[in-house]
Every structure is written in structure tokens, then in C-alpha cells.
Design a protein that fits this description.
Shape: globular
Oligomer: single chain
Pathway: Cofactor biosynthesis; riboflavin biosynthesis; riboflavin from 2-hydroxy-3-oxobutyl phosphate and 5-amino-6-(D-ribitylamino)uracil: step 2/2
Mean pLDDT: 91
Strand content: 35-45%
Function: Catalyzes the dismutation of two molecules of 6,7-dimethyl-8-ribityllumazine, resulting in the formation of riboflavin and 5-amino-6-(D-ribitylamino)uracil.
Low-confidence stretches: none
Protein name: Riboflavin synthase
Organism: Streptomyces prasinosporus
Helix content: 10-25%
Strand order of the largest sheet: 1-2-5-4-3-6
Pfam family, one: Lum_binding
Number of helices: 3
Distance between the termini: 40 Å
Amino acid sequence: MFTGIVEELGEVTAVETLDDACRFRLRGPVVTEGAKHGDSIAVNGVCLTVVEHEGDEFTADVMAETLNRSSLGALVVGSRVNLERPMALGARLGGHIVQGHVDGTGEILERKPSENWEVVRISLPADLSRYVVEKGSVTVDGISLTVVDAGPDFFTVSLIPTTLALTTLGLKQPGDPVNLEVDVIAKYVERMIGDRAVGEGAAK
């Protein structure tokens, strides 16, 4: 489990295309400290498993399902990525509960800079819109953010200078894809209410 608080801005150093997968080598001095085979590291919000670790770099395999459901397939050598290690037991939950299981992708639609922050509008797939609410939490490229405004096919977030300087959202421009993970609690509540409604209907 992650919190959506990005630890560092890493870099893709190699990409190996396989038959139905891809192997990435990524540089991240912070997240690789003490890393070992089998550890999890979130890359742009996608939970990946460390295959190899040497120095300040690690490799991770990404299967076709993940490439199809996320923006990782667009990464090339030199791409910057948000990196986060899993939350340690007993640590503070600085953001919100993030699983590292991407629900879909959006697209940067517009950036509106201000003196002390920047408002970014992001497209929202129709099947995810019911989970995104004003002042709720959403994960964008692995970053825990608060929704400012939520429409049927978009939402906006306000980014402080720290987020702009230390994550990929400071680099992305209109047209660029981003990974989206909605609040898992909302999905569980929907499922439980749906199952309850079905049960009550069958009992009548």
C-alpha cells in the first residue's frame, strides 16, 4: 500500500521490449536504498516489483495488461517518473490509501498558472466519473491530490510549488497522458450497496 506522497523524481534509463511485456530500468537513489528482489515500488502510480537492483537503479517487468491500462507504455529512455516505496507499518499516512492499481488514464487538458499555485484540468473516463467528487481524493501519476472541481468528463486539481517542482506534473503539458487511481473506499462502498440492493430485491 502507498500514500501518494512521491519520494523522488526518477528517470527511465533503459527499455527492453518483450513479446507481451516490457522491462524497464529506472534510476532512483532514494527508493533503491536497501531495495531487494521482490520489493514493490510505485512508478507513476503503478505498483511494480523489483526484479534486479544495482547501485541506484532497479529493473521491473510490466505485463501487457498493465501497459494497456496505464501510461507506462509511453515511457522512453530519459522519461521522468514519480517513485514511491510502500508505506511502512506504523508510518504516517500523509496522503490517502493508494493501492498502485491504476483504474485508467486521463489526459492533461489545460494548465492555468497562478502566483502561488497552478490549476490543472484532466480528462476523466466515463466509467470513473462517479468515483471522483469535489474535495475527494484522487491519485494522478501516483500523486495523492484533492479534487477541486469534478465534472462528468473532467476534474481539476490545484498544485503547489512543491508538487510542481518534485513530480512529473510539473513537466506534463496538455495532451500528455496520466495514470488515474480513484479512491478504493468509494469502489467498495458502491459494491456493498449494490450487493445489498440485490439481496433486498431477492428477499421481496
